[in-house]
Amino acid sequence: MNNPRFLIAKYVRDVRRMEPRNIGLIVWNNGDVQSRFIEDIHAGLRKLHIVDMHAYRQWLLSWRIQCGKPQLRLPNGEMVQRQQPEFVDAIRSRSSENFLLVDGGRIRGTVDGEDTPDLLNELFNELVAEDPTPEEERQYSEGDLLRKASTSVLRASGIRERPGFRNNYDMTCPVGETIQPFNFDHAIHTDRPVALIQKVPLFNHGAVYKTVFQFEKMQEAKQVRRENCASLIYLDPGARWPDQARESYKLLSKDSIVVNVADPMNASAQIKALGLSL
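^ that's the sequence the OP posted. Answer follows.
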């Protein structure tokens, strides 16, 4: 196994001043390529003072698409497979004056594939995230618990070993007269999406509404059924749920199976059933 490599995504608002801001990370771990960027207003997007928000989102989508490809071409014309460390260099070549990818180096030692999301989030918190407000601190805390518990539940369910299981799944979906890019944390894909999984912090309004919208449009387009869409949440089953959490739960339940990963036994059984009824 090779040591993981990572790229730091940077946004340059004014090329003349050349004051780049870190906006995200791409981590390569022996063919497992995952990314995380600042996309939510509550996660610092407003502080970046983006000049062209459409261009910003298109660059993030472009990088995600490159991360999902089985092979890429280096600037010298050589083709490299995603299992090769040079795959990172091919992704890095997709930059512009305002949107840059910079080599962050290598991680000491090897990392198991199932731990790649934890590595990505650790690097993101160290290199990208700014000091949070009290509200953001609560969201980050919930998000960390959600990510760790989700990793454990997905492993226990055995879904990672299912044919077609994918992380950081990018696809497009018709919305009205347009085609929109969608991203899901995990998916099972054969010749089409069979099951979709999204981690949703209940106290993050943006994440909740984005998930509801994506699942709703996917089902309207008849690309996947409700029983094969899962929203992963984290709430102590024995605690009294705040009103905001109850409202978010109700919204998510309309278009997905809501899986509380704080209850690992039931959550594992729910995840295991995804994609079995088509």
